[in-house]
Each structure stands twice: as structure tokens, then as C-alpha cells.
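User: Can you predict the 3D structure for this chain?
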Amino acid sequence: MSGRTGEVYRVDWLPGTDVLRGTCHCGAEHTAEDPVAMWDWMLAHPRGHQLPGDGS
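Assistant: Here is the predicted structure, written as C-alpha cells:
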């Protein structure tokens, strides 16, 4: 890795389920059962996860 970006990505497991909840550094949230799909969603920023009221 070349350097720090200051971006924080978080993935939490929802206990009692097979669901993961991801939070992007921009604050957008997403749920998925597949960890690969979760990371694909996060790393595709900003495509696919605009914040409500963002208008973009």
C-alpha cells in the first residue's frame, strides 16, 4: 500500500443472521450476505451508493 488515505471502511456482522452491514467512509450503508459483494460495493465508491438527498 502506497500511503494512508484517511478513509475508514467498516463491515459489521448482524448477529443471528448471515447479513453483513457495510459503512463506507462517506457514511453510506449497505447490507449483503456475500462478503465479496460487500467489498465490491464499498470499493466502487461513489458509483452505486449515493447518500439520500445527495442528488448525484
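The beta strands are 10-13, 20-23, 29-32. The first helix runs from residue 35 to 43.
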